[in-house]
Design a protein that fits this description.
Blueprint (H helix, E strand, L loop, with lengths): L4 E2 L16 H22 L7 H27 L4 H4 L8 E2 L2 E2 L7 H18 L4 H26 L13 E2 L6 E2 L3 H9 L9 E2 L6 H21 L10 H17 L13 E2 L15 E2 L1 H20 L7
Parallel strand pairs: 1-4
Antiparallel strand pairs: 2-3, 5-6, 7-8
Helix pairs in contact: 1-2, 1-5, 2-4, 5-7, 5-8, 7-8, 8-9
Length: about 325
């Protein structure tokens, strides 16, 4: 009886082999289309005053801010080298070795900051209430986010820590581990994975991309759309944004325990009794860079909520 899963062999990152068309990029197109559709649905229901052109321009402003912010956060906080500090013209250069590679390395938290700034500048240009627009956008974001994480899964990237759970998955492009380490042999033996002493072995990992697609995407969307959105007329502008920051920050903080931290960064706060192996969960007190940003999100969301409680309903 199989004790773990294998990454589906029929899945390929390329839509058409040999052409620079990838499912990852298509998933983001779908995500943006869903966000636009949900914003238009809110407008048609009279929940926000936005015509089709304004809705499109709002989404485009958020997308532009998202791409810039996501890329900047990735190279400045997660790269772990000084390369982009000394070669800033390469940050948005989509070619490597003469081949088109897009923009590998995008930070969600940077994308969030960029999207917020994009919406802010749009609100100022069009003389609209920023928090009303922000609420409208965050109702639509989580469902689109689901497809972004599905794109990561199709790419076989952003996989989680090593696991012996029956739904753990062997990703073909994941780094292999040396059987010179006792913990590697222990995991392999427990799963009846054959190996030769001193060889490298690929171990199952949490499919954390799917965890995120489910909880940060679908579950959060259901909460935002069906629980918080119906209360928007009774809450001050910005309430949905504060709820989103706290809920997403909390969900992502928890899921980060299943994701492997970036190898070049490791733990930012290694407070656990054991913190020498980022490939295994060792302690709740080992905190990654992503978790620090999630804590910042939750604090920002709570602070915004407390401020909103002191304002008029539609200030």
């Amino acid at each position: 009886m199989t004790q773990f899963l294998h990454f589906p062999g029929w899945i390929s990152p390329e839509i058409i082999p040999g052409l620079p068309l990838r499912w990852y990029g298509l998933m983001y197109v779908v995500a943006f289309a869903i966000a636009y559709g949900l914003i238009r649905l809110q407008a048609r229901k009279g929940e926000v005053s936005l015509d089709p052109d304004q809705s499109q321009n709002l989404v485009l402003a958020c997308i532009l801010g998202l791409v810039v912010g996501a890329r900047l956060f990735s190279v400045l906080f997660y790269d772990g080298t000084t390369y982009y500090w000394t070669h800033p013209w390469m940050i948005f250069w989509p070619f490597q070795g003469g081949q088109f590679v897009g923009l590998p390395g995008m930070s969600y938290h940077g994308g969030l900051v960029g999207a917020v700034l994009g919406a802010y500048f749009f609100s100022k240009k069009n003389k609209m209430h920023f928090f009303e627009l922000a609420d409208t956008v965050v109702y639509a974001v989580p469902l689109g986010y689901t497809f972004g994480r599905l794109g990561n899964f199709i790419n076989g990237e952003l996989f989680g820590r090593v696991s012996t759970k029956p739904w753990a998955m062997v990703f073909p492009n994941a780094p292999h581990f040396s059987t010179n380490y006792g913990w590697v042999r222990s995991v392999a033996d427990s799963l009846d994975i054959p190996y030769v002493a001193g060889s490298l072995v690929n171990l199952p990992r949490h499919p954390s991309q799917l965890y995120e697609a489910l909880f940060e995407g679908i579950v959060l969307f259901l909460i935002m759309w069906f629980v918080i959105r119906p209360r928007r007329e009774r809450q001050p502008y910005g309430f949905a944004l504060s709820a989103y920051l706290m809920l997403y920050g909390f969900i992502r903080f928890v899921i980060e325990y299943f994701r492997a931290p970036d190898e070049n960064l490791g733990y930012i706060l290694a407070w656990g009794k054991e913190s020498d192996n980022i490939s295994l969960f060792q302690s709740f007190f080992n905190i990654s860079m992503g978790q620090l940003f999630c804590l910042a999100m939750m604090i920002a969301g709570l602070a915004l909520y407390l401020v909103l409680r002191k304002t008029d309903k539609r200030a």
